[in-house]
Design goal:
Shape: globular
Distance between the termini: 52 Å
Number of domains: 2
Number of helices: 19
CATH class of the largest domain: Mainly Alpha
Strand content: under 5%
CATH topology of the largest domain: Growth Hormone, Chain: A
CATH architecture of the largest domain: Up-down Bundle
Helix content: over 70%
């Protein structure tokens, strides 16, 4: 009998999921997804030359990924709840890895754009599954806080790491390696997940997936993002801008009607927005997403187009920002237990706003250490402090079976905010630099820099708006992550358990 008990216990121990393995695969997978938005930025000039791409096609290498990523995030988050988190995680990781390989093998601009769109779809499936796996694997408040701190640190530093990695890979090897690098990492994560991460029971059968809701919200978001992106190429009054925006708005209204009156198991139960922590944190995510995208995109252009940095030099310039973000996120996961989610979401965005306001004073030829290093570090600290409490607020109070929903929402709002903000800023920059082809080089540099300064000011304004939105969070003394299931959405409970002193 004792032998049987020992054998059974040992077998159970072998079957028990490794929490460290779950944390590792979730953090690395999230890093892959996040950095792939920025990793191609410094590689685009070389890719454009090799594939004979037009300026419009070059822009769509970034936009195709952003559109599909933002548009399908909600479906990916809900699928993780309904079909099983490990299963959906592996599906997204496999698709992301495969289309990274195909993108690196591209021989034409259209091939590369299509591969990037498919890669974004894989990322949309993968990203919410990482957070869903994490929040359900670490149910206790203290351990979940530490796990979310590590996950948020990788997510927060992804943009800077992507620009740095893109510069190094492009300079040392070839632009294709910004995509090829995902293949060995993805293959290793697939093997580790298959061996060490166990499936968690799905909330419902796959037949309960809200397909009409998924289609309407995905198409609505994609059309809205497409319309705002197109405004940067043409104008806000152009038919190519107005028609997609109106169609997207109508589809999003249709989505709300489907969720309220039609869907038996809605993709997004509208009662979720009665949770102050969820609605406020997702509002914060929209503004922070816009600021992060704007900072890394336009500063990269300033360094390379105005100050003449190489791809490697441009990538290395972001190293202080990445380190500052990483260290601040790790520190923030402990600080939030002392000052609370709400206070930290006031401090973080305002610090980052100071850095972006400082950058808005740039002029052509300004030195890196005197005029770029300090603002980058300040902005990095602010972003790092913001990501942990933002993620905690977005997932706090959600029932266990809707962890994927919370993950999909926070990722969607951040990416949509980034895409919409970047397109709006691009319109401002293009307008201020209009007709620069007929000017002297010094005038071109000045016009471009003035446009970038205006974009940095818009980033600063977005971060101030994020701090204002954070004030809508429930007040608390110390941060505490609630247990799954503490909030009954079907009963319409309005308050979120964000902190012990709320």
């Amino acid at each position: 009998m004792s032998t049987l008990v020992t054998t059974t216990t040992s077998a159970g121990a072998r079957r028990a999921p490794s929490r460290s393995a779950v944390l590792l695969v979730c953090c690395l997978a999230q890093l892959m997804v996040v950095l792939d938005v920025s990793v191609v930025m410094v590689a685009l000039p070389q890719a454009r030359h090799d594939l004979h791409m037009s300026a419009s096609a070059q822009q769509w290498v970034v936009n195709a990924y952003t559109l599909t990523f933002a548009g399908f995030l909600m479906l990916g988050g809900r699928a993780a709840d309904l079909w099983g988190r490990k299963r959906v995680f592996l599906l997204g990781l496999g698709a992301f890895t495969l289309f990274s390989l195909l993108g690196g093998l591209a021989t034409s601009a259209s091939w590369l754009v299509l591969a990037r769109a498919a890669q974004g779809l894989g990322g949309a499936i993968l990203a919410p599954a990482t957070l869903s796996l994490l929040t359900t694997t670490f149910p206790q408040p203290e351990e979940r806080r530490r796990a979310l701190g590590a996950w948020s640190a990788t997510a927060a530093s992804g943009a800077a790491v992507g620009v740095l990695a893109g510069g190094i890979l492009t300079q040392a090897l070839d632009w294709r390696w910004v995509l090829f690098i995902n293949v060995p990492i993805g293959a290793g994560l697939i093997a580790l997940t298959a061996l060490r991460v166990h499936e968690q029971p799905a909330a419902r059968s796959a037949s309960s997936l809200d397909v009409p809701g998924a289609l309407t919200v995905t198409a609505g978001l994609a059309l809205a993002v497409y319309g705002i992106v197109n405004a940067g190429d043409s104008s806000w009054a152009a038919a190519g801008t107005i028609v997609p925006l109106v169609a997207g708005a109508l589809l999003l209204v249709g989505f709300a009607l489907v969720e309220k009156y039609w869907a038996a198991q809605p993709l997004v139960p509208l009662a979720v927005f009665r949770l102050r922590s969820v609605s406020a944190s997702n509002s914060v995510a929209v503004f922070i997403g816009a600021a992060v995208f704007g900072l890394y995109f336009f500063l990269s252009l300033y360094l390379q187009q105005v100050n003449g940095y190489s791809a490697l030099e441009g990538g290395l310039a972001y190293l202080p920002a990445g380190l500052a973000t990483l260290l601040a996120a790790l520190t923030g996961s402990r600080l939030v237990a002392v000052i609370g989610v709400r206070r930290q979401l006031l401090v973080g965005p305002l610090l980052a706003a100071g850095g972006l306001g400082w950058l808005a004073t740039l002029q052509p030829g300004m030195g890196y250490w005197a005029h770029v290093f300090g603002p980058l570090v300040l902005a990095g600290i602010g972003f790092g402090l913001s990501f942990v409490p933002m993620t905690m607020a977005a997932t706090t109070g959600m029932p266990r079976e809707q962890a994927g929903l919370a993950a999909g929402l926070i990722n969607t709002t951040r990416q949509v905010g980034g895409a919409l903000g970047l397109a709006a800023m691009s319109t401002v920059v293009a307008d201020m630099a209009g007709g620069s082809a007929h000017r002297a080089p010094a005038q071109v540099a000045t016009a471009l820099t003035n446009g970038y300064d205006a974009a940095f000011l818009l980033c600063c304004a977005a971060l101030v708006a994020a701090a204002v939105a954070a004030r809508l969070l429930p007040h608390q003394g110390r941060a505490r992550t609630s247990e799954p299931g503490e909030v009954d959405l079907r009963a319409g409970r309005a308050e979120a358990l964000v902190g012990a002193g709320h």
